[in-house]
Amino acid sequence: MPEGDTIYRTADVMRRTLRHDRITAARGRPGGAQLERVVGARVAGVGTRGKHLLVDFDHGLTLHTHLHMNGSWHRYRTGERWRRPADDAVAVLETASAVAVCFEAPTVELIDTRALPLHPVLSRLGPDLLDDGFDMADALARLGSSRKPIGEALLDQRLVAGIGNVYRSELLALARVDPFAAACDLPAATLRELLDAARTQLRYNIDGEMRATVPGAPRGERWVYRRAGRACRRCGARVRSASAGQPVRRLYWCPACQAPQDQGETTAESAH
To answer: Alpha-carbon distance 65 to 92, whole Å?
Structure first.
């Protein structure tokens, strides 16, 4: 699933491609969003809320997409051949000079812009880590009240929006935090450290280059993500992994650097 930095970058590309242009043609999947309703309107703005992408039109409608695991937005010049089959397209927006195509996203809906504050998913999102007005106090309060393991809480978009599977493992490894400790049991200073690091990394990685999560290391290097069975970069212990959370995601951690406070054994089963 694309994380907050990827969606932010996608929105920036679409903003430069579509903003202020008039939509000359639009279509969705059969039985899906009635995108023909935006033909003739101009794109007033393109923004994000966590992992959600929003395209605002000047006649009061907003296109909301969430890419989940397999979705993606592409941009093309008019007449350019698409890199994926047309049957995979779930939303198409055309202007005189460009085409924006969303492939395989399960969430594609056209909403009255005024109703966005009441949307059942968007209205429940936690503070967006990439928002210039990010509310640290609210995010700390939400995380600090969660009884979920911190490794699961960081993925709960209702607590804080923008962190995905890569970042949650990397952030916890960087801060040496036990991923199975309840979020509510962690000191506020630790939660703030995690959120500060998340904001720093997400903002740094919106440039479109290979993602960087290990300070001082080449882009693409990872602390623990997808390194199960290999040596921890800090202490040399063997990195472990386990399936965790709902929906299930693969979690990676160093059992030495991220040992529980009481030094007890975790109950998660390692896999390599």
So the answer is: 12
